[in-house]
């Protein structure tokens, strides 16, 4: 027997042995107050040369609390912390936002498949989900571009948004066992829509594309672009038509944004119940609502709504409420890095937005550490009609959890450990961190810290 075959058989044996042990543990907790009823997944986004990027798997209890269950390697590298940015002038640390995107980790509709980007190795990993038990890696494939950052899945088609260099979209077919294979004719160059700052390589995350998603009907693909360093480049949303097989049909249609109109920067987005596009404007501290017209342009539903907090990036919807995760103040030389915040907006039936004005509509990530940023967020539906909101807190290496009340307000459920705490963005050496961890021959001290990003659950 060859050593390759022996290793393969050993891996299978270890997998089934682990499944048996976890299943026994899961069964012991069933029927108790501590019963696990779902899972939440967070990507470590690590560049550790031995362990690489991993998925931290949490068991979710009925009350929304989390317990770590295990770590599952992707066979790829994450991005690590983001280097200090000079795009806005003075050096600004954005270390906590290593990828600069939304939906770098996603589940398919039936929660059987989990997909993760490996931004540092230009690959995407597909897992099978065994609820309450573990993840089984199916395959890791080339992303079809540089620095994969966001994923979208609909039925048997997955698209990856590569944000490095000029940017590309790459389509894949999803097999019945969750495996990925390139979709013929599924690659789209985005050079005409992107103008990202090339430094630090493979691009400064403050200017790159941020998200890709299918529309609710699945007939269009949407991407957001934050905007380049050139004057008056304040970002855009691009809409592509799709064929019935999920391939991109024709050229994309871009709607450009303007800081003067309070729509500077396009970051995270979600869709309302009637299909309106609700998008955060990271450069203007606003959120706005648009209807996608038949010609793929965007028609505004009312005026942009000021969020009242700096750098709204990530968004997740629950019914008629949208929750926005604000990164917090960017630190510079001699500044104190402000904490992250989650705010809540109400989506009216006509698509217009208004702030939720009840106690608990806003939460601030207070801690002994000033730089307790908010990163990705996810809404997870519970079994009893309740829903929960989860957010990555990379500076602390924890996941924050809130119960979503009937009036849209949030009840704090605490934070849960399991991730490596992140680099201190206020440290003087962090402002000298100018090269990506996975590209550096002599990695900076920041590279040994965590940079968790990407969250999904059920």
TrEMBL record:
InterPro entries: WD40/YVTN_repeat-like_dom_sf. This is 3-carboxymuconate cyclase. SUPFAM superfamilies: YWTD domain (SSF63825). It comes from the Bacteria.
